[in-house]
Every structure is written in C-alpha cells, then in structure tokens.
Amino acid sequence: MNIPPRPKIRRITSDVPEHLLEAFQHTVTEFFANAHGGQTSAQRAAEIRAGDRDRGLDSLLQLVDVAEGGTEQAETVAEFLAGLYNGTDYRFDLTALRALDDDLFEHCLAVLRLDHRPAVEVHGYFPGGQQRWQQIITRWNLDKRPAPEPVPVHGERYQARYVTNQEAPGYRDITLTVPAA
Q: How far, in Å, CA of 99 to CA of 101, rounded?
C-alpha cells in the first residue's frame, strides 16, 4: 500500500476580536472543508491558470506556425508575436487583431493569458526560440520598419508650434497639426 506523503504544515496564529470568534471559527472550518474537496476560489483559480497555460502553449505553437507560413494573416500574427517578444521595439496595435479570423483571434487571446504572468519569456518556450523569433522578425521585415516615436513623458515639457488650421469654420471643428520636438 502506497501512502502519500503528508503535506507541509505551517502554524498560523491570529488575534481575533471576541465578538468575531464564532464567525472566524466557522470560516476556518468552511475553508478546510472546501479545501479538502478542492473548492476554494484560490484552488479554482489555480486550476483555471493551469488550463490557460496548457491552452496558451498549444496556441503559441499554432501562432508560430502561422507566422512562419505564408497565409494572408501571417504578417499580423508575426507582428503580434514580435510585440510580445519585445514590445518596445515592435509595437503592436491591438486593433489589428480585428482582421484575424476567429480561430487565430482566440489563439492570440490564449497566448496573452499565457504571457500575463510569464514563467519564461514567450520565445523561451521553444528550443532556439530567440533565433526563431529573429527569423520571423526578419522574414516580415519588422526590423526594417521605422522605430516607433517615443511616448511623451508625463510631466515633461515639449515645444510645439502652430503649423496649420486647415479649414476650420468653427472653433469646434479646428484641426491643429503640431510637430513635437
């Protein structure tokens, strides 16, 4: 007969106001009853995360295959994966996901969930992943695109000058175009 090892036990001491003691004891009893049956919210969340991880890894494999292929949507998927790989150098406009078919869109969402609190960087799930991502980036010329404009820093002062107002008959309809320096 194979007996499973006992889990580690930690002693927890809490000071509980006397008027809350009965409710506290009830809560502790309920917690252990639910925990034994695998029903606590934390346990359910851990199970969901484990399922999300499995689905995310399957989806990541699917998306890499698409990005390395030649389908109509491969470039968008490559841009998405490059953005996860290095969002500073390869910015990805999330509205581009709207152009993907439903299946690829769902794969992207699964990979986003996988990458929400990553154990490893997205390319780290593959042997030679960094080289593989670089090949995808090079294939779609993502490294040849102009560097994104730096995001304005909150609180910093920038100089601007009036360039044009185009045709603005009313103050509500005016369009100002200003270069940021």
A: 7
Judge if pTM exceeds 0.85: no
Asked if 63 and 108 count as a contact pair (C-beta separation under 8 A), the reply is yes
Structural domain boundaries enclosing 68: 41-144
Measured distance CA(114)–CA(174) in Å, rounded = 44
How far is residue 114's CA from residue 55's CA, in Å, rounded to a whole number? Answer: 8
pLDDT tens digits along 125-178 = 999 999 999 999 999 999 998 877 777 788 888 776 666 556 655 555 555 565
What distance in Å separates the CA atoms of residue 122 and residue 124, rounded to the nearest whole number? 5
What stretch of H or E contains 51?
Answer: helix 41-67
CB atoms under 10 Å from CB of 67, counted, come to 25
Residue 168 counted as domain residue = no
Residue 66 contacts by C-beta under 8 Å, 6 or more apart in sequence? 73, 74, 77, 104
Backbone CA torsion sign across 84, 89, 95, 100 = negative
Number of domains in the chain: 1
Q: Does the residue 82 lie in any domain?
A: yes
